[in-house]
Please model this.
Amino acid sequence: MNSTSTSASGIVDVIGVGAGFTGLYLSHRLTNAGWTFAGFEAGPSVGGTWFWNTYPGARCDVESIYYSYSFDEALQQEWTWSQRFAPQAEILSYIEHVADRFDLRKHFTFDTRVVGATWNAADRLWEVRLDNGETRRSRYLISGAGGLSTPKDFDVPGLGNFAGLQVSTSRWNISLDDLAGKRVAVIGTGSSGVQAIPLIAEVAEHVTVFQRTPNYVMPARNTELSPEQVESIKVDYQAIREECRHSLGGIPERPVADKAFDVSAEERQRRYEAAYELSGFNGVGAEFTDLITDVEANRTASEFIHDKIREIVEDPATAELLVPKYHPLGAKRSCFGTDYYETYNRPNVSLVSLRDEPIETMTANAIVTSKGTYEADAVVLAIGFDAFTGPLYGLGLTGASGAKLQEAWHDGVRTYLGIMTADFPNFFMVAGPQSPALASNVVMSIEQSVDWIADLIEHALDAGATLVEATVEGQNDWVDITEETVAATLYATTDSWYRGSNIEGKPNTFMGYLGGVGKYRRMCTEIAKRGYPGVEID
Ligand code: N01
Model:
């Protein structure tokens, strides 16, 4: 592309949405290729997820040495992670460092949200509307809006009645000290709630946790990284990254070959105990090959965790409420906590099971369930996100036929490779629905997708084409592949944000490709080699 001439016409080659992990790498990759790029970020600075989710205890539960960019050897040599699972502030510092090191902030306009984008078929460009009233035009539009960036609305009546402090984990705007000495109600026990609850309990007068679905929480076993550990990683970094690129989840895999019932009950127990010490995604849930495909095999691992909960939690009634009995281990996102179950042994923490007593309303100073009234000075919402489609629908996309994206996906998400969707030419999603992003080290998936998209656009340009669009056939095939892959697993049995079931009325589509990042990479590479079947290039 001729950057100079496109700039002079007021049309940029690419508009990118978001300045998180995706947007920053996108701006780096595309501007290095000589393209003009204009990025828009709703927040005041870089960071995306790691800018907004500042709740107490927030950290990534993919190890930081993997959950970081691999595209630049000097970058990965010069940055030193302090802990196995870096806290939010350190991940944000890393992202800021990357933005400054590669001088990327200049490509973005901050505090500016994309609120609409319409495909102009005559001129083959996107007309992108911003919340400041301006319209910008681009040949290509690429979303790095993230999968977990649109907070879910609280779908219980009465929140408006509550007169005390209200805060959500995903838009945390208070300090932990603001909860000191208060009676705090925490609603939600997914990854965010699990990380925040133990720290809130340390300062609050009392914490009442409102749990709807108990989840599997394994110990995070976070540790400081020693200089020797850091050194040994850096010596091998390129090989480690290469292993991650060809793995299942974008992290090194533990070599496991046998099924749960290939070994005796005693041997299984011994192995689960050892895996429990490892924790992380390579822990108990990865101990045998069939744990996510065979419900009986899974039961052996699930019951192992149930027993751990009963061992840790002193009050038997509370322990039983915490035991995750509604879904198999791993079928919805497992959580990794620090002193999570131990927190329920504190005298200032109590648990309310919303399965037994649903919330009916709130008053100015209490949460009212079907069985009781729980007074609170503060309410912390840890209720999750309108995953994947929320951020994309927020872009207000109108495709070639005049249909909105939410109309095109009325009966469920339909994509090609999780990257493109028919009727929306020259529009790409990075870490989109039906990509491996949902079940992988997302930074690795982001790099792969950005590179693939950049190569596709380059290929189209070399062919003299100005339009690239998923074909309906290519898209149908990909939807079939993602659905067949999930149908073979226990993910298919369980309601969660993975399939949109956390949002009332959202069609039930599994939001990820589960075949693994290595297999996906090979497929994408093969598709490129074959001249991009499944994509109309015109
Ligand atoms: O959200 P969630 P999250 N009344 O959707 C409950 C990533 N992440 O922010 O299960 C009462 O998992 C809901 O109950 P139920 C990670 O991918 C990563 O915690 O729907 N309760 C559930 O308990 C994660 O999976 C990290 O029955 C209500 C909770 O709220 C994803 O983000 C850290 C309710 C929501 O859990 C989302 O995690 C944090 C209602 N009306 C997040 N609505 C790390 O890497 C919802 N709930 C560490």
